[in-house]
Amino acid sequence: MIRNRLAFLLLAIGLILVRAAHAALTIEISGGAALQIPVAIAPFPGEEAFKDRISAIVAADLARSGQFRLVSTTGVSPLPRQPAEVRIADWKARGAAALVIGSVVAQPGGRIDVQFRLIDTVKEDPQAPGGVIQLAGYSLPSSPAQLRATAHRIADLIYEKLTGDVGVFSTRIAYVTKRGNVHELQVADSDGANAQTVFRSREPIMSPAWSPDGARLAYVAFESKKPVVYVQELATARRWAVANFKGSNSAPAWSPDGRQLAVVLTKDGTSQIYAINADGSGLKRLSHSDAIDTEPNWSPDGRYLLFTSDRGGSPQIYRMPAYGGEAVRLTFQGSYNVTPRYSPDGKRFVFVQREGGRFRLAIQEIASGQVQVLTDGALDESPSFAPNGKLILYATEQAGRGFLAAVSSDGRVKQRLTTEVGDVREPAWGPNARP
Amino acid sequence: MKRLTLGMLVLSVLAGCASTEPAKEQPRAAVEDRTAKPAAGTEGTAQPLVPPTSAVNPLNDPNNILSKRSIYFDYDSDAIKPEYRPIIEAHAKYLTEHKSAKVFLQGNADERGSREYNLALGQRRADAVRKAMAVLGASESQMEAVSFGEEKPKATCHDESCWSQNRRTDIVYQGE
Fold it and tell me: By CA distance, what is B114's nearest residue in A?
């Protein structure tokens, strides 16, 4: 296993953050939520002793979400480390709505104690000491190797407290890289750090899909000179062919309970959708058409499948009951609508729409049929929702090179994740669950 | 005169493609005879001594149509154009005469659009060649139609000059 050190640059709000020396993945942000929450993050005393600086990682996470504006802490002296040391007026004057303070203390035996507190800098409580209202306060045991994970956990707690939504900073992403003829399936933290190659091949790799428990990846690989669907256990690297029938095997999609996969097979003729258990047993055909039926995606409640079909003459998005029944066409604008992916709440789906020779992401509300175009690239594809439904990771292309990008599900915030060498494609955002 | 007759027989086989009647064995054997004749324009000139021609694998002999392996398609189409019929004809005949031979029919698509949908489009192109060869008598057990979608482009530029080369089905024999 090769361990790539991916670091990132954050160019939002003029901040350049950690680990630029090994920069391989660059994240640029444009746009922002309509109402960004102004938050100040004070340096944590003690963090400078470690390579991974907690406050910088937390700040980068929050800024990357597009939902926060970072308020400068320079010039505030001394920087508070306890609630009693906070002078609310200092932060009000800077326009901060909240302040993060904390500390990092090394303990014997390599343990590290990380503490942080989230302070309300708008309201005061005359009853509280110093009038300070603490919105959250945690003590988190960590270690030098876990400091990044601890920082992401802190960012999740702050995000959840201030937005009311679930944070996704502790999640991981999977994607495929191509350098020359070498294809790699990689897994990285959601900020691009800690990238690891989990499978490498001289033949193509495509369509990675996370199991709901985050322990396994299904994907398509061509090492036997044809597309075969594999499942790989991440912790052990054990992998097995789950669908290797005559013809092509592709487009794996996990059922929400993680027990089976929808796959696309051609063993009976044209590309059709089947369900199969994760161990390769119990094959059952789900779609019955003489057209292409592909790109299945389960509804979060497991009752329906979205899929792409050209049964009406052009590729469009359809929905069918997961265990048989009539398919209903959902897209009607344009002659090419493909790659449907349910939002985590099951109320919308993101998809790829061709318009004037350009391929871009759009989102459709299922109940109303209302469509909003999200991106304006030329070759945007492979959308994947963050588990909280707020961001959509996708693949795009510029000057013939593939890279990853993300857009907020309201289209307001855009991020580009670029690498220095090779192509990056086929992103899949992992679940919140971590084995 | 004999050559003309053979040409007519080939044409009649091609015409038969569209019918449900499988092609008959006779004309195919005759076509292979033709490839065994010395190349035109070599009479009266000194020739180096070469090993017996039986050592040449017809599948790789550049003078043999069997060395042609790619069928190209129009945009968003899996219709086999008439100019590629002779190639499909020759490989179908080879399969009927070599029952132990097996082929992969590898469909491909250009890079535009969804990778999985392109995999399905490539499959359709592979299936079109498979069905044409089955009609000509090749056994399904000797053929496997698979797709590489847009994953293995022959040409890597981003305009029609490359896309047209990537919309194709390759005929690849097992062991190659």
Answer: A381
- pLDDT over 90 at A196, yes or no: yes
Interface of B with A in 43-62 (CB under 8 A): none
Q: Specify the DSSP class assigned to residue B140.
A: G
> Which of A285, A195, A267 shows the shortest CA–CA distance to A227?
A267
Cβ(A331)–Cβ(A352) below 8 Å: no
Residue among A241, A240, A275, A229 nearest A255 (CA)? A275
- Give the minimum alpha-carbon distance from B71 to chain A in angstroms, rounded to a whole number: 18
Residue B176 DSSP code: -
What are the start-end ranges of the E strands in chain B? 70-72, 103-108, 143-149, 168-173
Question: Partners of A221 in the beta sheet?
Answer: A205, A228
Whose CA is closest to A259, among A211, A320, A210, A300? Answer: A211
Structure tokens at A181: 């003829």
- Min Cα–Cα distance to chain B from A287, Å: 15
pLDDT digits (tens, 9 = 90+) for A342-357: 999 999 999 999 999 9
Question: Is residue B128 less than 8 Å (CB to CB) from chain A?
Answer: no
The CA radius of gyration of chain A, in Å to the nearest whole number, is 23
Alpha helices by DSSP H, listed for A103-209, are: 147-163
Q: Which of B120, B152, B157 faces A204 most closely, judged by CB atoms?
A: B152
CA distances from A68 to A97, A165, A383, A407 (A): 10, 13, 24, 15
B124 and A359 in contact by Cβ < 8 A? no
Chain A residues whose CB is inside 8 A of the B127 CB are 266, 269-270
Q: Which residue has the tokens 């609508």?
A: A337
Contact A294 B119 (CB under 8 A): yes
| CB distance A425 to A382 below 8 Å | yes
Within 10 angstroms of residue A290's Cβ, the number of other Cβ atoms is 9
**A158-A160-A164 Cα angle (round to 5):** 135
* Residue A345: partners with Cβ closer than 8 Å, 6 or more residues away: A300, A389
Residues 6+ apart with CB under 8 A from A432: A166, A168, A170, A171, A214, A387, A388
What's the pLDDT tens digit per position in B16-64? 333 333 333 333 333 333 333 444 444 566 767 765 555 689 999 999 9
Contact B114 A308 (CB under 8 A): yes
Q: Which amino acid is at B123?
A: Q
Interface test with B, best of A183, A224, A271 (most B CBs within 10 A): A271
C-alpha distances out from residue B166 to A101, A352, A390, B28, B123, Å: 57, 22, 37, 30, 13
Inter-chain CB pairs, A–B, below 8 Å: 95
pTM to 2 decimal places: 0.84
Residues A304, A307, A311, A316: is their CA dihedral positive or negative? Answer: positive
State how far the Cα of A32 lies from the Cα of A14, in Å rounded to an integer: 14
